[in-house]
Amino acid sequence: MLDRLPKFPMRGSQTLAGMALLSLLFLASSARAQPLRDLDTHCPFHPPTTLDQWQGRAAQLRLQLRTALGLHPAPQLDAVQPHIYGRIDRGDYEIYKVTFESLPGMWVTGNLYRPVEIPSGQRVPGILCPHGHWTNGRFMVASDEEVQRQLASGAERFASAARNPIQARCVQLARMGCVVFHWDMIGYADSVQISYERAHRFAKQPRELERTDAGWLLFSPWAEMHAQSVMGLQTLATQRAIDMLLQLPEVDPQRIGITGASGGGTQTFIVAALDQRLALAFPAVMVSTGMQGGCTCENACSLRTGTGNVEIAGLIAPRPLGMTAADDWTRTMPQDGFPQLKQLYALCGHADRVELFPALHFKHNYNHVSRVAMYGFVNKHFNLGFESPVLERDFTFSHPEELTVWDPKHPQPEGGEAFERRLLRRWSEIADGQMRSMLRGDQPQVAALGQVLQDGWRVVLGTTTLPYADLEVHVERLADGGFEFTAGDLPAWRAMIAAQPLPDQADNAHFGNQPPADDDHSGVWQPWHRSAGDIHIDIRSPESTRRYYLALAGWRMQPVDSSDVGSSASPLLVQRMAWQPLVANPRLAAAYTFGYNRPLLADQALQIGLTLAWMAQEFPDAERTVGGNGVDALAAAAGLFCAQQRNADLRDQWTLECDFQGFTLSNVDHIRHRAFLPGGLRYWDWPGLLAALRDARIDLHGDDLPTAVRELERLYAARNVTIKGAAPAEDAEDAAEAPEEDAE
Q: What is the mean pLDDT of the chain?
């Protein structure tokens, strides 16, 4: 291919003031360096060799998880105010009904199991029990046939436990002296403000209904770009459940544990990875290098890009971590996953604190055999003093009508689509109000806000998904004077020399202006002739100015066959993926693709960043400018941000010159849009990205600069970001003094 590219000899008489126009074309040799990863892709864990390496990686990964779940920065909410009522006496233990708000208007519902006798002045462990995807969850009532099958197979010892094994573990842990909270996943039992079908079976929703004047819906592009998901809501509910337990005077704050299976196992290790208040975790039949989580409630954009469940579970180290394996996706854990966790725990000095209890003769379960392993693990690490093994006793089965929290004195709250829109808008207002309060604060608060934005954008653009600062970049000089770049798992890209930008023929009949069919997951490249001059890099030295025109990852170049496109076509055919590909999943939830793969614009930004860093070395004494227009202005700004994350010495060495031409991320109306960027709206769109830069010079062109730029001038000043074209400082100060929004 390369020897067929046109050659353009340059003569001084052909330049203007010594300017040579070069075209730098970033090319993907294939759609991606490797196929799209999905929830079933094998995801091995490679432990680091030193504790310092792990601690650095762990900090990056926790930031990624918090950001993906909409919890960065941690939301400032009122203290949990639980309603605990409706005591049920079961002799040696008692059951209460519990409700509290995780977010304003969003109610957590469940039951508290408590030993009847707790010695005066003694504190006991608190255990959280998320239930997972068992039919009806807290209200599970297995059929007589299923009960008999469980008893006959040896999975259960008593009919009551076979009827509802989740209830069984709550009862047994209470009998062991623990206070246990068992609550509903969204859409289960009493928690139906967002329905089961919405939270767990989502497949598709009409685009015209995704955003209205009243707000947006879950799974819409705007929810994803605000980092709002069912997974995030459930994670927040679990953290608020920890808050609730810690309010109980009989609960020992040093002995808070969590255990759940399947989807409840996902909640278990995700929250334990994030929240150091959990002293012990026992996720059953979930942690593995295989299937990572099949439900929409277990996935969120950016959550597992560059990582997987085994590494995430490793964040629990050195706290005790117990797991089970069965004849499901966890069956390979004894050979693939657990040895690596054992190695990590040994690195942390506590190899004895991680255990796996395989029972591969059972299918997916949290049956009595598995629960006995958990009871022993809790007994051992919380020093409960029971002889091993700890076996269950029979108990009185509690029916749904006994356990339900709603009654005439405690009426069921409003739910439905209108509620969902208000909830997401309120969640966004809380986050936005919290950051704007920092913006109006003193200098340390403004500096802290800058760090929040910087950290958020690091995750949004994927710098935490690979060791970006230390990523080895290979640059090969090509025979025609161009360059080929390879780095990590990024698509290969090239710098090709041409005399001028390619002509724009965007009306080519082969280019698709509409998104592909919902069931089209092929990610086929579509040909499109377009100008390569929307993104440019200028290198100015006393001798000359060289302009590099860019086309980014997601593009490729090949010779044109005139029989295909006509004799008037450009000598080069630029193929552009008009819409981002999705993984082959019939359910159109963005997290199934972008929970495991970086979006296109993030790959572009990472490539630009590496190129800017390389050019700084190649042209150390030159003045350097990077810029673009419209969506490409966002890519240019993101690339400069990535360059600074790779090398802090690049601060104040580049000028960003761009015209956004009215583009904002709120214009992105499809999860396959080339600029779909999960989390981007959460961190204030491109004005927030500019504020995440440090020591930068920015020239903004265009007639109408958004108010958001003027409002952030104080933050730009704190981070030494100089913006030409913005409103006068006094206007920004007036905006900064506006009344604070209520974030309660």
A: 86
